[in-house]
């Protein structure tokens, strides 16, 4: 299910995590060549992606919200 990004935070290992409108979180790593997301490395890049839809597997699975 597609969900928009509404914010970001860093996890315990300092990786960027997108906060989705549905209440789930999803890592958004820039780790070439597997994941090419250079936008995640700057504040302007992350801000430019607010509202972008990501596929939320947790919604598809009916998982409880990460952010109650």
Mean pLDDT: 94
Name of the CATH class: Mainly Beta
User: What composes the largest sheet?
Assistant: 4 strands, antiparallel
Task: Count the domains.
Answer: 1
Q: What would you say the CATH architecture is?
A: Beta Barrel
Ends distance: 19 Å
Number of strands: 4
Percent of residues in beta strands?
25-35%
* Shape label: globular
Characterize the quaternary organization of these chains: single chain
Bin the helical content. 10-25%
Widest sheet, order of strands:
3-2-1-4
* Poorly predicted ranges: none
Please describe the topology of this protein.
Layout: E1 2-10, E2 16-20, E3 25-27, H1 43-48, E4 53-55, H2 57-61
Antiparallel strand pairs: 1-2, 1-4, 2-3
Please provide a written account of the structure:
- By secondary structure, the chain is of the alpha+beta class.
- It has a single domain, classed as OB fold (Dihydrolipoamide Acetyltransferase, E2P).
- The protein has a 4-stranded antiparallel sheet, with no helix packed on it.
- Strand 2 and strand 3 form a beta hairpin.
- It is globular and about 30 Å long.
- The two termini are 19 Å apart.
